[in-house]
Amino acid sequence: MEDIDIRVENLHITARRYCLEEYDFWVKEYSRIHQILKFPYQYSDKELDTFPRYHVLKAILDGVEAFIPADFSGLEEAKAILAEVGSTAKNVFTEPPNEMIADQAMLEEREKFIHFIENFPEDDLFRVKPLFYRRVLTQKENDYHWQRLKDIWNLENGCYYPLDLVITEQPVLAFWDVFFEDEFGFDDLRNILRLHEVNRIIGLFESQLGHELEVATFEPIYSSRGEGYWFSEDYDWLVYASHESSITLGGHWLINEVKNVWTNWQEGIWRSSYFE
């Protein structure tokens, strides 16, 4: 296997970092504008000029992360493909409203990304800092992992325990997500996974293609991607985050390890009502 051109690898990193940073900027900008304006029934022109920008940047980021540096034969091909991603990447949030302001805002972000990629100084590609690993799955990979979850964890629809009372060979235990994060924490969860030599995690989502990521960036929370499932390729553990503020752990060793570390875990058990 030939060594990957460091310029290609770093251009890919640079494209990802650009999208991540610009996305964060526009999310914060929209939050600031929305708090000031607080339009109850319709978007203001300022809002229409803001939130579509982070939606299209997220679509571009997913498109970039569908590739790895080894997919490109050289620097010029990498630039051409990444620019094409900038021009065409879509998700459910980049489709109509067909509002002139929103459409123009997304077009501007596409053009800015393309200009950035095509004009990034080649010398600077030798001075790019590393970035965490994350890759968007192919449709074939995505379908395969969903089928494996159905076979092994008895997953039948978009919801799982505790919203769906499934029967599995492995134990499952559900907590309130906020209580789990505040009282136990994702750092301890990641440490437990590392001790069991889990380095890469697969995440599947109800509304978008899943991804493969390094354990250091693993945060099992419900998001705009919808219900989420995380596991590794041996499928002997599972974490599920639902839209009903629950986070479910699955697997003997994972549940036992969490209980060993978290002495008051019983207090965080999820119930269908706060008043039960």
Structure description:
By secondary structure, the chain is α+β, with helices and mostly antiparallel strands. The protein is built from nine helices and seven strands. β3 and β4 form a beta hairpin. The model has no long low-confidence stretch (mean pLDDT about 90).
Low-confidence stretches: none
Range of strand content: 5-15%
Biggest beta-sheet profile: 7 strands, antiparallel
Give me the Rg, rounded: 21 Å
Task: Choose one word for the global shape.
Answer: globular
Order of helices and strands: HHHHHEHEHHEEEEEH
What is the helix tally? Answer: 9
Q: Give the strand line-up of the largest sheet.
A: 1-4-3-5-6-7-2
What separation lies between the terminal Cα atoms? 60 Å
- Measured as a percent range, the helix fraction is 40-55%
How does the helix and strand content classify structurally? alpha+beta
Could you tell me the mean pLDDT?
92
Number of DSSP strand runs: 7
Short summary:
The protein has 276 residues and is of the alpha+beta class.
Give the topology, please.
Elements: H1 6-37, H2 45-48, H3 51-65, H4 75-88, H5 100-119, E1 134-136, H6 139-153, E2 172-176, H7 177-184, H8 186-195, E3 200-205, E4 211-214, E5 228-231, E6 238-241, E7 246-250, H9 252-261
Antiparallel strand pairs: 1-4, 2-7, 3-4, 3-5, 5-6, 6-7
